[in-house]
Design goal:
- The longest helix is centred in the C-terminal third of the chain and has 20 residues.
- The strands form 3 sheets. This protein has an 8-stranded parallel barrel with strand order 1-2-3-4-5-6-7-14, surrounded by 6 helices. Strands 8-9-10 form a 3-stranded antiparallel beta sheet, with no helix packed on it. The protein has a two-stranded antiparallel ribbon with strand order 11-12.
- The chain is α/β, with parallel strands linked by helices and 337 residues long.
Length: 337
């Protein structure tokens, strides 16, 4: 029987090789999705079919790791049965929890599979303990993933005010500060991330080498232009460079990675249950590298919280895979809060 640890490392598994990389390098939990629009990383080549999911669960459970299945998009009336079938499959296959955002799907899961553990996805955008407690009282959720918009004092207030386990993001790419409600990609492509499961769908992405540099476009809209030798980014609207008042810059959000490894002792002290690594679309090598560093850091903090110190080698490894080669504490560091 799997047992919960006092502080869990939750790592991305975009496919079976990434799942194995995460488990082999010390993940307590992996989170993944099915090969359809029931999850918010519905990219071609990602996610699990039935055989791969069974194999992934077996591999993880044999090594005392948990498998969480993200079903965190919003079903529509005409396709409701696809989402309920995914819930049924999760229960039948023996996943350790499902990660949901839609209240209707929570009601279905609670009624049909009362033994199945429910986590509230970041896509649910619950930033207050009142919202989290509502989902707990109505649907019995046992964990909530906080959006990356709260200062540390606000996270602590939420933890103190709810019986629900709190999971926070620790490392990876940032979204604009309306998680679960982003409409930018839908505005340009016509496909809503909340229902189709992917922002900047591959069919709308174009790369073109021009005399002015490598241009990336989303459904024909110029998102960015890269000089020779400059690292090319995936064309998401929120991280494009646009001309505003005769100046071209990252007008919405600069590419950078959240990195809270220095906050680990504080997160443990205030009672956070788990830290999440972002990046189901990333490679197995990325998953292995980031998981290994965070496993070492968490174990170090668990052994000696007061004596914990971030190692230069950890930061060097994480900086190699940070977006834009930069990192930030994000909203956690807002001393005026």
């Amino acid at each position: 029987m799997l047992t919960g640890k006092p502080f869990e490392l939750v790592c991305p598994a975009g496919a079976l090789p990434a799942l194995k990389a995460a488990v082999d390098n010390g993940a307590d939990c992996v989170y993944t999705g099915l090969k359809d629009n029931t999850n918010a990383r519905n990219f071609t080549g990602l996610n699990f079919d039935d055989a791969q999911l069974r194999e992934g669960i077996r591999y993880a459970h044999d090594r005392r790791a948990k498998v969480l299945l993200a079903l965190n998009t919003y079903p529509q009336t005409a396709t409701w049965s696809r989402w309920t079938a995914a819930v049924d499959k999760a229960a039948d296959f023996g996943v350790d929890a499902i990660i949901l955002a839609d209240p209707g799907l929570m009601e279905y899961a609670k009624t049909k599979h009362p033994q199945l553990r429910l986590h509230l996805s970041v896509q649910g955008s619950a930033t207050s303990y009142e919202a989290i407690n509502f989902y707990h009282e109505q649907f019995g959720i046992q964990r909530a993933v906080l959006p990356r918009v709260l200062a540390m004092a606000q996270v602590e207030h939420v933890v103190k005010s709810t019986p629900v386990e709190i999971e926070v993001f620790g490392f990876g790419g940032l979204c604009v500060m309306v998680e679960g409600r982003c409409a930018l990609s839908a505005y340009v492509t016509g496909d809503s991330p909340n229902t189709v499961g992917v922002c900047s769908p591959g069919k709308a992405v174009r790369y073109e080498q021009t005399e002015r540099g490598m241009e990336t476009r989303l459904n024909g809209v110029l998102i960015d232009r890269f000089a020779e030798g400059e690292k090319t980014g995936y064309p998401t609207l929120c991280k494009g460079r646009f001309e505003v008042n005769d100046e071209t810059y990252y007008a919405i959000e600069e590419p950078t990675s959240l990195n809270t490894i220095e906050l680990l002792p504080k997160l443990m002290e205030i009672g956070v249950k788990a830290v999440k690594i972002e990046g189901r679309q990333r490679s197995p090598a990325y998953v292995a590298q980031v998981t290994k560093v965070w496993r070492e850091a968490i174990d170090s903090a668990l052994r000696n919280r007061q004596g914990y110190a971030v190692r230069d080698a950890w930061m060097a490894e994480l900086n190699k895979v940070s977006e834009g080669n930069m990192h930030t504490l994000g909203a956690y560091y807002r001393p005026w809060k």
